[in-house]
Amino acid sequence: MFERFTKDARAVVKGAVEQAEEAGARYVGADHLLLALIDREGSRGSFALAALGLAERRDSVRAAVGEARRRAGLTQAETDALAGLGIDVTEIVARVEDVHGPGAMSRDERSAGRWRSGHRPFAREAKDALTGALRFATDRHDRHIGDEHLLLALTVRPGVPAEVLADHGVTYESLTRVLYGDGEAKAG
């Protein structure tokens, strides 16, 4: 499948690996793909994000992803659902961090004191996003998988990336409008 990726999509995947390495993560997650996507410039995906106003809010996206990592990858919706059951995730995170240090519930190894270097496999949610990108390209009869397909895949798969993007006004519907038309400017 990787041979069908455009240069920009390959750069996103490589950037996601770098994001995971910088975070000390054991696996490359969908959140790393999102962070790599928002760092891109000059691609269809970056044009679409800029058209939707996300280019100016990169720091806000990074902060939202970081907060989700502190909650062990729980989305805000999951945190709210647990609150409905009487479970205060914020309190749990605070207590765990009091005992084990900041970021103890995140999935990175540095916070857990077990830093390793070397190959990082892709987590299930990242693999699902890559597979979703292939599906979007195939459904649109595109010969290649671009970073815009990766972005579209992240908007439809439940999880932190989709929630963070939606909170910043980037949804599947808004992306398809910018990328593929409906009388508005098209990316590319």
UniProtKB/TrEMBL annotation:
Q: Which organism is it from?
A: Streptomyces hirsutus
Stated name of the protein: Peptidase
Tell me where in this chain the Clp R domain is found. Answer: 2-188
In which domain of life is the source organism classified?
Bacteria
**TM region(s), chain numbering:** none
Matching PROSITE patterns: CLP_R
Q: Which InterPro entries match?
A: Clp_N_dom_sf (IPR036628), Clp_R_N (IPR004176)
Keyword Repeat among UniProt keywords = yes
The record's Pfam families line, in alphabetical order, gives: Clp_N (PF02861)
Q: Which UniProt keywords apply?
A: Repeat
